[in-house]
């Protein structure tokens, strides 16, 4: 939290959150991501998370499998196309271990 506040005060243009909400419950996670979206609206935010809900409202998802890029598109397109792991995870609503990035 301290680092997030520091980034807010500095008006950082690029902010990276690596499992920033992994240790909190889902309600707190939602609240924190709302704060992140509003406080860093003018910034590029990269989110690395296991929680799909944290990135479904992102502009784009960058999905990796090991060192290979699988997809880079808006989450709605990935789910609508029924392609890849975003569709699989969203249809199961599971906390599955994959990296998602937002920009």
TrEMBL record:
Matches recorded under InterPro entries: ABC_transporter_C-like, P-loop_NTPase
Membrane topology annotation: Multi-pass membrane protein
Cellular-component GO terms for this entry: endomembrane system; membrane
One GO MF term: ATP binding
Superkingdom to which the source organism belongs: Eukaryota
Record carries keyword ATP-binding: yes
Nucleotide-binding recorded as keyword: yes
Signal peptide annotation: none
Main localization category: membrane
Alphabetic keyword roster: ATP-binding, Nucleotide-binding, Repeat
Subcellular location: Endomembrane system
UniProt protein name: ABC transporter domain-containing protein
Organism encoding this protein: Globisporangium ultimum (strain ATCC 200006 / CBS 805.95 / DAOM BR144) (Pythium ultimum)
